[in-house]
Amino acid sequence: MAHETKEQVDAVTGVTTTGHSWDGISELNNPLPRWWLWSFYLTILWSIGYWVVYPAWPLATSYTRGLFNWQSREAIVADLDDLKAQRASMTAQLARSSLDAIKQTPELFAFARAQGKAAFGDNCAPCHGAGGGGAKSYPNLNDDDWLWGGSLAQIEQTIRYGARSTSDKGHQGSMPAFGRDGMLKRSELSNVADYVRSLSGLATEKGADLAAGAKIFADNCAACHGDKGQGSQDLGAPNLSDKIWLFGSDKATIMEGLWNGRGGVMPAWEGRLDDTTIKALTLYVHSLGGDQRR
Amino acid sequence: MADAPLAPNLATPSPDEDEGPLYIARKAIYPQAVKGHFRTIKWIVLAVTLGIYYFLPFIRWDRGPNAPGQAILVDFTNNRFYFFFIEIWPQEVYYLTGLLILASLALFLMNAVAGRLWCGYLCPQTVWTDLFYSIERLIEGEKRDRIRREKEGRKLEIFSLRLLKHAIWLLIAWWTGGAWVLYFADAPTLVKELATFQAPMIAYIWIGILTFTTYTFAGFMREQVCTYMCPWPRIQAALTDEYALNVTYRYDRGEPRGSMKKNQALRDAGLPAGDCVDCNQCVAVCPTGVDIRQGLQLDCIQCGLCIDACDNVMAKIGRPTRLIAYDTEMNVRARMEGRPEVRRIVRPRTLLYLGLIALVGAVMAGALGLRERLDLSVLHDRNPMFVRLSDGSIRNAYTIRVGNKHLDDRRFALTVTGVDVAKLDIVGGEIDAQGRAILVVKPDQTLEARVLVSASADGLASSTNLLFTLTDLAGGETAHASDHFKAP
């Protein structure tokens, strides 16, 4: 042929083709409907309107703010305020009810636990673990062993003022460094460590003088830990006769505590958290292990 | 030309020639009014479907004091869907999936029996467009009336009629949006609130959206929605077969078409003559502006109005009706070639669809009849997995959620079996004298509680299967959930 033309008309439909042919199959060049074109122009117009009213173009040190003066940060603040407003009546009830009264009101109790769980994740989980499972030297809040007491009032006291904290009202009292400060000799400490292990039925080392250990315990330890090693919640002295060990039950760990002393710190949260949050935390922590009657 | 055999009739315009329009305007369609069998069916379907849509929310259904009294209600605030005697919670939304499957199968069955029955009669786009067209004709008259008015330059009349038409269209569109929101709130209350401008903003917004879509889709977009926007014509074409009835021009009878006189002359001379007198009535009444005589085409929604138009003409000229009819291309060819016609409504395809509809329907009805009105779910604490208590025993904690789907208060007892339970404790309930956990759940509500299970550490495997059993203390209905008891 003289020349290959691009445009061809399909015989069946009478529509021109694009001129591209793939294995003999050519593409029809159907015109677009005009309403589609209008919609397309409309989206362009819309985008211009969008630039005008919303933040759009970056400038050297700033950006075009738009006529609506909308900001994502302000939107979030507004959302949070909305949330607070929605919760306002429940929050107010929480603020004016006593811990026991909250626990008796199912909706309020559920609300407090939910709020407490969130606050726990934000403030307490780094030490006590996401579910309050604790870690070495950080008490497990799910069990039934409480250093400073597990009643609602005692838990609130500990959260509010802490232990060995900066607050005057915080729990005081710590485990002295019997070895480092030269109060007891290493052999004496070894005996008392074996004696302490025997209190909760753990195996003792061969040749350990448990009688000597008992004597040393009565003279040095019983004042805080009790004559049977049952501990004291007033002094934060752990129960040594149960199966729960904050640092570990092996002899080396016990020796380490005896030598260097122990004194873990729980910060005081008063002033850092508001009253309702502390209440909610108290109820949440209390609910982790159920009703703590001890 | 190498590709000549593949495309034998390619015209080759010169390169300078116009490539044709890049965009085309919509061809205005003014379908003429028509009376007949299918038009009557369409009026009835229109009245019934619109009647259902506009008035259904006002039907009442007594469910007692703890649930709304509206027969059909989508209650987003409380996450409930009410359908007469059925109440559906969000986790039961699979019933909706079942309904959608049934709807699809029904669509397929319709398609296998008689093509685009949905498009022609039932689709909201068709129904509202049909309504808008008839209002347009009622006010502005037929196309010829409009042309006459234009010619005579009756500008004021044209303007006022148009104004009236759009006002009525907007009213219908507004009512369409108004009916929509009534499905989402108590209808009589919402009507009062809407009338006194006390209704929530979202109601007005939705009315606005549906007013706009109804007005533009039925008043302006019309057949373009079917031709360009709707996926069903494409899917339909892929699903259909040669037995499906379609609105078909019987060219075996109609061709060669020609004027009455010419064809009569042919007939008298003993030559072949068709019944089609080329009066174009089938095109004039078509709401999508197609010529059915060109055969099956994508734009044709198969509403059957051309059948009515053609029947009227055939009756007038004394020829048999149904020159256009529900028929198949296969039978047209069969008649031309003198073979017998084949009509098979009952065939594997329709039987399969019917069977599937029956199966899905039965499964859904069974599931609905047997479904529990009590839910129990148990979630084991992830952290810590277990806790050692001061006496050496092991405790696991679980979060349970009890759903009471009855419309009154229910009292439940929870027991745990699987390990030798030393102590069962619950936060958010109480323990009775028999050591069971007692929970009270409000009507149509769920309750979350924390359950603590303790067992002696002696002989515990690292994981033991646990079964939670919840019993309705009054009715005796039970629900079970299983989980594990973890130990070191």
From TrEMBL, chain A:
Protein location: Cell inner membrane
InterPro entries for this protein: CcoP_N, CcoP_N_sf, Cyt_c-like_dom, Cyt_c-like_dom_sf, Cyt_C_IC, Cyt_c_oxidase_cbb3_su3, Cytochrome_c_Oxidase_Subunit
Domain Cytochrome c: 111-200, 208-289
Cofactor note: Binds 2 heme C groups per subunit.
Keywords, in A-Z order: Cell inner membrane, Cell membrane, Electron transport, Heme, Hydrogen ion transport, Ion transport, Iron, Membrane, Metal-binding, Oxidoreductase, Repeat, Respiratory chain, Transmembrane, Transmembrane helix, Transport
Stored NCBIfam families: ccoP
Assembly notes: Component of the cbb3-type cytochrome c oxidase at least composed of FixN, FixO, FixQ and FixP.
Family: Belongs to the CcoP / FixP family.
Name of the protein this chain belongs to: Cbb3-type cytochrome c oxidase subunit
Upper classification of the organism: Bacteria, Pseudomonadati, Pseudomonadota, Alphaproteobacteria, Hyphomicrobiales
UniProtKB/TrEMBL annotation, chain B:
Domain 4Fe-4S ferredoxin-type stretches: 267-295
Disulfide bond in keyword set: no
Keyword hit for Lipoprotein: no
Taxonomic source organism: Microvirga terricola
Pfam families tied to this protein: Fer4_18, Fer4_5, FixG_C
Superkingdom of origin: Bacteria
Name of the protein this chain belongs to: Cytochrome c oxidase accessory protein CcoG
Transmembrane residue ranges: 40-59, 93-114, 163-185, 197-218, 351-370
PANTHER family assigned: FERREDOXIN-TYPE PROTEIN NAPH
Keywords: 4Fe-4S, Electron transport, Iron, Iron-sulfur, Membrane, Metal-binding, Transmembrane, Transmembrane helix, Transport
Gene: ccoG
InterPro entries: 4Fe4S_Fe-S-bd, 4Fe4S_Fe_S_CS, Cyt_c_oxidase_cbb3_FixG, Electron_Trans/Redox, FixG_C, Ig-like_fold
